[in-house]
Amino acid sequence: MKPVLRWLVVIAVLAGTAVQAQNLAGNWQGTLQAGKELRLVLVISSVNPGGPSAVMHLIDQSGQGIPASSFTVRGSTVLMTVDPLGLKFEGTLSADGNTMTGTFTQNGKPLPVTLTRATPDTAWKIPEPPKPMAADAPLAFEVATIKPSDPARQGKLLTMKGRQVLTINTTLKDLVVFAYGIHPGQVVGGPAWMDSDKYDVTGLPEGQGQPSIAQLNRMIQKLVEDRFKLTTHREQRELSVYTIVVAKDGPKMRKNETNPNGLPGLLFKGLGVLPATNATMGDFTSVLQSVVLDRPVVDKTGLQGRWDFTLTWTPDETQFAGAGVRVPPPSNDPNAPPVISTAFQEQLGLRLESTRAPVDVLVVDRVERPSEN
After folding, report:
1. Distance of alpha carbon 13 from alpha carbon 290, whole angstroms
2. Which of 49, 203, 353, 366 could anchor a disulfide with 165, C-beta 3.0 to 4.6 Å?
3. CA-based angle 25:22:88, to the nearest 5?
């Protein structure tokens, strides 16, 4: 082949790849088989100087967009990672450019999916992000039920489904820890049943829209004060704590500016696998001290705004007592994730340090088992 003709062939191949990447722009949709069917919509942007980008929507859950951490097109191969969910995708485009067949991988588990380019007639509706509750909305539940949990049910959960607040297998101490944003070790006094009796709570806020974390905290404070007759006072005591600071090279987390008023997503995918979306450092420290670590956590990073990341580590026997879970003995797997302090530095660009510091504690003055619904 003559040199000029050879270069023309190379240029044509490269141009075809660029056109193919450019033509991916639009909505792609398919159904994940992840224990149950989850409809997924992938919104791909046009090619820009940094290449194409994508936002993933799981429309049967919240529909809130989760930006892909990376999105690459190499010929007919599409590669994507969504770090906050611990997802990786590799797919192949069909010859007509209208189908993408591939596999998502999460925690080593393959999730096959076929994504099809949507048309105006076939496109699934992406739910609108929930409207935030007004700043002056009443911080109380219109209706709330508190029932003893099913002893056979495992796990623990505090979440929102639309406007409805739901908890499963939560003790009064769990509710207090969440409502006041403290570590269980910061709750002093009270009867033993505060830490043993488990309840399922269902509440519908008086105000319209989705409450912020601060609003939700105050509503649960009022709930435990009204229904458990809880009265407390605060004192300051010196305790062993963890502090979080920024490491020398700065944070490695991805800034999220998509929904500054939305709720954070911090839902464990297993022991030592914590994907986070739209989370402030305060949200992160709250989860660490209420669920994972054995002492209060103090944020000294100075980082503002909201972040996406996934923290993966090998937990030890001191961790996850707040979730009512006993961590199994460590394995001898050489490929196991690092311990949490190393994972902080390598994956987040932060340092987790042990020290002593004066912190507030909540002293229980009075409490009763909950009133009837």
Report:
1. 55
2. 203
3. 65
Segment 141-179, tens digit of pLDDT: 999 999 999 988 877 888 887 788 999 999 999 999 999
State both tokens at 334: 């050489």
Domains annotated for the chain, with CATH where assigned, are 3-117 (2.40.128.120), 141-366 (no CATH)
- Decide if 106 contacts 97 (C-beta within 8 A): no
- For residues 9-31, b (16+ Cβ closer than 10 Å) or e, as one string? eeeeeeeeeeeebebbeebbbbe
Helices (runs of H) and strands (runs of E) counted in the chain = 5, 21
90 forms bridges with which residues in the sheet?
Answer: 79, 103
Give the helix/strand (H/E) hosting 279. strand 273-279
Task: Note whether 159 and 287 are within 8 A (CB).
Answer: no
pTM, 2 dp: 0.65
Please state, in angstroms and rounded to a whole number, the distance separating the CA atoms of residues 77 and 132. 39
For residues 280, 286, 288, 292, the Cα torsion angle rounded to the nearest 10 degrees is -150
Euclidean distance between CA atoms 319 and 312, whole angstroms? 14
Per-residue pLDDT tens digits for 28-67: 999 988 777 889 999 998 655 556 788 898 888 766 788 8
